């Protein structure tokens, strides 16, 4: 199947679809036995705030929303206090709240998303991508490893310690 994927800014009209995708991801994390996203975050207010601030992005497959992520430029206060060390101190893109619609699960969508994020980062002249995930999010840990993200240490975020990774784009 030859499908076209595109990354675009989320719009408020996408809110309900994004929230549905996030709810699916929250339930998947719960079924996997993870503590990530099980305390009322993210929620519909998070989605609305992401869109209003310009952080919300969707990856579409043939025009249909398949993946949601928040992309934040140079702003994650929790990253100032890493137990470890980042690879760079320059500008960076932060990736948060990655969620894949169940219809697209198991099709390599998160890897495609990271390809788009890296291209976005490069096109904006930004040096690196930083991301964190829960210690028990095996799927994301595997993706970050496969995409050559480097483990940098731990950050305290959303009520718990998270593994922090960075990839230098150029």
From TrEMBL:
Gene3D superfamilies: 3.40.630.30. This is Acetyltransferase (GNAT) family protein. It comes from Chryseobacterium profundimaris. Residues 5-170 form the N-acetyltransferase domain. CDD domains: NAT_SF.
């Amino acid at each position: 199947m030859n499908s076209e994927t595109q990354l675009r800014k989320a719009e408020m009209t996408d809110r309900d679809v994004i929230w549905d995708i996030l709810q699916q991801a929250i339930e998947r994390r719960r079924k996997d036995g993870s503590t990530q996203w099980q305390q009322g975050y993210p929620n519909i207010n998070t989605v609305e705030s992401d869109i209003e601030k310009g952080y919300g992005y969707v990856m579409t497959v043939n025009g249909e929303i398949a993946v949601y992520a928040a992309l934040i430029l140079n702003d994650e206060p929790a990253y100032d206090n890493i137990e470890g060390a980042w690879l760079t101190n320059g500008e960076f893109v932060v990736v948060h709240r990655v969620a894949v619609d169940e219809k697209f699960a198991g099709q390599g969508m998160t890897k495609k998303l990271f390809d788009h994020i890296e291209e976005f980062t490069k096109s904006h002249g930004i040096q690196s991508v930083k991301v964190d995930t829960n210690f028990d999010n095996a799927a994301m840990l595997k993706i970050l490893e496969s995409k050559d993200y480097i483990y940098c240490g731990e950050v305290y975020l959303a009520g718990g310690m998270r593994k922090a990774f960075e990839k230098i784009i150029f």
